[in-house]
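Morning F.,

Quick status update on the modeling queue. The single chain you submitted on Monday has been processed. Sequence for confirmation:
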Amino acid sequence: MAKEEKKAPKLRFNGYTNDWEQVKLGDVAEITPGGTPSKNISDYWYPKEIPWLSSGEINKEIIFSTNDMISKKGFNNSSAKWINQNSVLIALAGQGKTRGKVAINRIPLTTNQSIAGIDPSDEIYYKFLYHQLTKDYLKLRLISSGDGSRGGLNKKLLNDYAVNLSGIDEQHKIGVLLSHIDNTLQLHERKCEELALIKKALLQKLFPKKDEFKPEVRYKNFSDAWEQRKLGEVTEYIKGFAFKSKDYKKVDIESLEFLI
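Structure tokens below.
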């Protein structure tokens, strides 16, 4: 008799050995698509009273604010609905890579019809669900269209979508760990962006401007003017050539000589 396959990941926190359970998303969460008030009625958009999220903003991943807001009158006269704080938002449709992307909202908000809010029950931790759906991005795109290029997700597809659940304590541990890694990555990304800006500024100051022969910023004890020369006078130009695969020859790397 074949050994029954254990329904659990290979890597786990200490003390957790129970099988995971596969359930339909609609059985453990409330899924709420959004709506857009008519753009032709200004009273639906002014005054700005209720946060309203557009599809492109799903790429923020963590939503603390929205780029636009609708009025209470617009909310009452459209299919827009409130989505609770700490829900998982998913793009049902959108240009390019948007469809299937997920985010977490840190504020109560409404969305357009191309986004659905997934409000988890007590059985599923929202950060755990967010990371599982992030992992399933390509799978979600495929089930929404059949070929992954066109089409869209909808409430029925999401209700029937299978998710894997461990106990709620293990879900918390997994969700917090992965979110901590995300936060660390974002910090490094911001540092990388800052360094890129610093480098851009230095490139402008460490090299002479047009028709000038001294840079704006220099190391100490360097004051001579720079000399302008033709590139061909200080470098050797070697033009490459194309050849067919049959012309490849095996090279003994140990026999090659290098100049250093």
